[in-house]
Design brief:
The structure holds two protein chains of two kinds. Chain A is mainly alpha-helical. Chain A is 75% helix and 2% strand. In chain A, strand 2 and strand 3 form a beta hairpin. The longest helix of chain A has 32 residues. Chain A is globular. Chain B has one domain. Classes of the chains: A mainly alpha, B mainly alpha.
């Protein structure tokens, strides 16, 4: 083994921690909340380790085993580290929320390790410098995410959503494996630092396979078909995690990996711009007709993936630093707002103990502020000033306009159209949240109090979003620093 | 930070404090909520008036705090004469609407939210007027829209209020997005968000960019002004909105579009660029004037009659701006103020009629003159006012707009047609008065009850209309100063 051990610590904390929780939890008979607390602590430790890596001016590499398949090389880059740290902050709050939301599930001891394994797979994908490892870690992330989606197996649609995700993401992973094959055949190596010096047609085909494979995982149109079913049928915390950060972070992985594989920036940029526009349009149009809150949020998520792709695409196509920093800012703010929205929708569900309690006209009895919190998140996602969504929109427009090129202008027009269409979905949804019902609610339905474990993370997401909205300077400073 | 800067920031801070108090005081009765709203707005009014003296020394008052330093965005406010005229108008209109609200039923439920939203609506307009940063300008611009949409959505009349507010929101938001694109283009090309700096640097942009920005700015702001054919949101929004909100929408918010045209294309770009669009602005103004007046004539709903009258009056304003002459533009600025007072008055009268008779169909109304004597006097003055009869204010502003039209290099026929078109205004105004207040009393219920507070407020606004008409010199001077304040290096 050579290199600095600190590189691998965040990954190992989660990976080893997952098994540790299963063993210790079973031995000491932890209840749901203790397990949630312990998991949140492990995530916090991993976050501290990541911040340690970010603070280090040298980019360390850790390798063990032989180079190529069989060996392991970890080389975190600064964007991947920041994105991972953002995911961890959100995951900590999601885990605390789960301490309340899945309390009725008897198999809760498996839930938290699955979160840890899924995240470790994702971080591994960011940090690994080896394509075969990337494939394995992607499989780890897929399998655990599928299990998490189907976790509330008694709920209608849950298992089929898990299967759908498993099939689609496995298809994506198979295409990635095909890409690994092409690259290995063409270069004789799976080490990205070696491959980047031996770019040829095989690596280009391989990069194309990576692009398609990861597009499935990110929910890029037309490979998005799993998104609405999965986000509306999985546990709300998992929907928040997937829609808010995990699926979008894949775009950064694809961006970093394809660049290392020698894909032309203009080709990658054009792909991201074109398909980003498709995502924006399809997501906003389909969201218009949705009345089920989580399904609405799913389509809104497809739109936001489009915004992110468009901005990343501009960054690649025009080699524009401001577009890259905008894409990271969009990732952060959309992640917070989306999690706030999904978790609040989860409070609606939990309060009434039914999976179809997503009717926004049927507000929770025990959390009076839920409609306000949800509408706050929706206003943010719609990009209405002065919330951070608007700052994000401003930055996207600035990046696109500063290029002065026809491609980005066409994209910008589509962005505007999608933004207006999107408002046609957001506003009626907000109206429905406050619409008084003609008939009294069914009093036979069981009402369950949403505990502080659920409400505190929701309020914290809300506070976080307010801070980013009204004082975005420190966040922008960090992000611009990273890109520089 | 000196006293003037404290006062300037206070104009935006006190309404925010009012909003916070109202949001905390959830059980506030309507009178209590109104008191908070009126006091907050009155403080903003007092601060504005206190700044009159330093403004007289000839210097604009500025206040700036860094906000998002990474992208050169600051919380920057500036009060110049132009902003002063618009600011005073919108604060007075909001105050009148808040007092008027006390006399009618709107806002009896969730009073704290109602008055908080009225304050936010006003804050949106004040902020838009005072902003000296394009980012901040847009934030306040959208706040104005959002607050008004919520007011219509929650307190609007009828089942269709959701659809109407959605239509209003989407159409005006499209206009706002067009403005946003222009603002960001300026910001990206000139590297600053500060409006004063943009004014100094805008002439360095390529002429083609300046022309494109002018077109888009005018289109975007004309949506807010409800110029034909971009007016489609207005009749429904004005009809469905509760009366105090309609008053603010018609009397104050429409004028924000005028302010936008003055603050951006006219202040930023040279006469050579603007001249290409002069004739189109004048034609659009003329068409809007005649279309609005004809629609007012055709309507039976008394609220829609006055709503369409706004489309017509905004036409005059655009015509004056399009003339690109000092007379025409000063006339337009004055018309904004006079129109605000007349429109507030006429909508207040409509509110009294609806409250007294529960009827909105002009064909079913009649003979109210004897039943509502004070209101009849007020509406008579209002009708004369909107018809442009001397010595009431609109006569002065229309005189200047037409003078501007005759002075311009554009075909004189446009001004003649606009002048002739004003006959339609007289006709619809007289129809409104004659059908409702003259003739036989047509309603079956003998008694009509008019809430006293509504009448007092209406009478006060009528008095203001008369005073403004008789003593126009201050307004002329403010409007002229306002125009020269923004035209540093501009078209004239």
């Amino acid at each position: 083994m050579t290199g600095a051990i600190n590189v691998i610590l965040p990954f190992f904390t989660l990976f080893i921690g997952a098994f540790g929780i299963i063993v210790i939890g079973r031995l000491l008979k932890f209840d749901n909340r203790i397990t949630a607390g312990l998991t949140a602590t492990l995530l916090l430790v991993s976050l501290i380790q990541l911040i340690w890596i970010m603070g280090d001016s040298n980019i360390d590499i850790l390798s063990f085993g032989a180079a190529g398949p069989g060996g392991v090389t970890f080389q975190p880059d600064v964007i991947g580290t920041f994105v991972s740290a953002t995911i961890l902050v959100i995951a900590i709050l999601i885990t605390i929320y789960s301490g309340g939301s899945i309390s009725s599930e008897p198999t809760y001891l498996l839930y938290y390790p699955l979160i840890l394994l899924s995240l470790s797979g994702l971080f591994g994908m960011f940090f690994t410098n080896d394509l075969f490892n990337l494939f394995l870690l992607s499989e780890l992330s897929n399998l655990t995410a599928s299990a998490l989606i189907a976790f509330q197996s008694r709920a209608e649609g849950s298992v089929s959503a898990g299967y759908k995700y498993l099939i689609m993401s496995s298809l994506g992973t198979m295409i990635i494996l095909l890409g690994v094959y092409f690259i290995y055949k063409g270069t004789g190596s799976t080490d990205l630092s070696v491959i980047s010096t031996l770019v040829n047609n095989s690596t280009r085909i391989g990069a194309g396979c990576f692009l398609v494979g990861f597009s499935i995982k990110a929910g890029v149109v037309p490979l998005h078909t799993w998104v609405p079913d999965v986000y509306s049928n999985s546990p709300s915390a998992i929907s928040g995690l997937l829609a808010g950060v995990i699926s979008k972070s894949v775009l950064f992985i694809v961006s970093i990996t394809c660049t290392k594989l020698g894909m032309e920036s203009s080709e990658l940029g054009l792909f991201l711009i074109a398909f980003g526009c498709l995502n924006m349009l399809l997501g906003s149009i389909k969201a218009l007709t949705q009345k089920h809150i989580r399904r609405f949020l799913s389509y809104s998520s497809i739109t936001h993936t489009g915004y992110l792709m468009f901005t990343l695409g501009i960054g690649h196509y025009y080699q524009l630093d401001s577009a890259f920093s905008t894409s990271i800012f969009l990732f952060v703010i959309a992640g917070i707002a989306k999690c706030l929205a999904f978790l609040t929708a989860g409070i609606y569900e939990h309060d009434r103990q039914v999976s179809e309690a997503n009717d926004p006209g049927n507000p929770p009895k025990t959390v009076k502020y839920a409609p306000y919190l949800l509408s706050f998140a929706l206003v943010g996602l719609a990009g209405i000033p002065p919330l951070a969504g608007f700052t994000g929109k401003w930055l996207v427009f600035s990046s696109a306009i500063s290029t002065g090129d026809v491609i980005s202008m066409i994209g910008l027009v589509i962005f505007l159209v999608s933004s207006v269409i999107g408002l046609g979905g957001y506003l009626p949804m907000i109206v429905r949240l406050f619409k008084e019902r003609d008939q009294p609610d069914d009093t036979n339905q069981l009402i369950t109090n949403s505990s502080l474990w659920m409400t505190i993370p929701v309020y914290m997401f809300c506070v976080l979003y307010i801070i980013v909205s009204f004082h975005p300077t420190p966040w922008l400073q960090i992000i611009i620093g990273i890109i520089k | 930070m000196d006293t003037h800067q404290i006062l300037l920031s206070g104009i935006t801070v006190f309404p925010i404090i009012g909003v916070i108090i109202l949001l905390i005081w959830r059980n506030a009765a309507k009178k209590q909520a109104a008191l908070i709203g009126i006091v907050s707005e009155s403080i903003a009014l007092v601060f504005t008036l206190m700044l009159l003296k330093p403004l007289n020394t000839g210097q604009a008052i500025q206040f700036s705090l860094p906000w998002i330093a990474e992208i050169n965005i600051s919380f920057s406010l500036e009060l110049n004469w132009l902003a002063f005229v618009f600011l005073l108008t919108e604060i007075l209109v909001t105050l009148a609407a808040m007092i008027y609200s006390l006399g009618e039923k709107t806002g009896e439920k969730s009073s704290n939210f109602y008055y908080a939203l009225l304050l936010l609506f006003s804050l949106g307009m004040s902020g838009t007027t005072l902003s000296n940063d394009v980012f901040l300008f847009y934030v306040f611009w959208e706040l104005m829209l959002l607050a008004s949409v919520l007011l219509i959505l929650i307190w609007g009349h009828g089942e269709e209020r959701s659809q109407v507010s959605l239509k209003y929101f989407i159409i005006t938001h499209i206009g706002s997005l067009i403005v946003l694109i222009c603002l960001i283009t300026l910001y990206v090309n000139l590297g600053t968000a500060n409006i004063s700096e943009l004014i100094l640097g805008a002439s360095t942009l390529p002429p083609k960019t300046q022309s494109l920005l002018t077109i888009f700015f005018i289109i975007g702001f004309c949506v807010k002004m409800a110029i034909f054919p971009l007016h489609i949101w207005l009749p429904d929004a004005h009809t469905v909105a509760p009366m105090p909100v309609t008053i603010i929408l018609a009397a104050a918010m429409l004028s924000m579009g005028t302010y936008g045209i003055l603050r951006f294309p006219i202040a930023l770009f040279s006469l050579e660029i603007l001249e290409h669009f002069s004739i189109w602005m004048m034609i659009a103004g003329l068409v809007s004037e005649i279309y609005g007046a004809l629609m007012s004539l055709a309507e039976k709903d008394i609220k829609r009659i006055i709503a369409y009258s706004s489309v017509s009056q905004m036409g005059y304003i655009l015509f004056g701006l399009g003339s690109l002459t000092q007379q025409g533009m000063v006339g337009s600025i004055m018309h904004v103020v006079y129109h605000a007072i007349v429109k507030a008055l006429l909508f207040m009268v409509v509110g009294i009629i609806i409250a007294a008779t529960n009827e909105r169909d002009i064909e079913r109304l009649g003979g109210l003159g004897r039943k509502l004597p004070v209101t009849t006097v007020c509406v008579a003055i209002g009708v004369l006012g909107i018809s442009g009869m001397p010595p009431l204010g609109i006569f002065n502003s229309e005189w200047m707009i037409f003078s501007g039209g005759f002075e311009t290099s554009q075909p004189i026929i446009l001004t003649i047609l606009t002048l002739l078109g004003s006959i339609f205004t007289v006709i619809y105004a007289l129809r409104f008065f004659g059908k409702i207040f003259l003739g036989k009393f047509t309603l079956h219920d003998g008694e009509v009850h008019q809430p006293k507070l509504l009448v007092y407020t209406t009478a006060a606004v009528t008095a203001l209309l008369v005073i403004e008409g008789l003593l126009p010199s201050s307004l002329i001077s403010w409007a002229t100063e306002g125009l020269s304040a923004i035209l540093v290096g501009g078209p004239l």
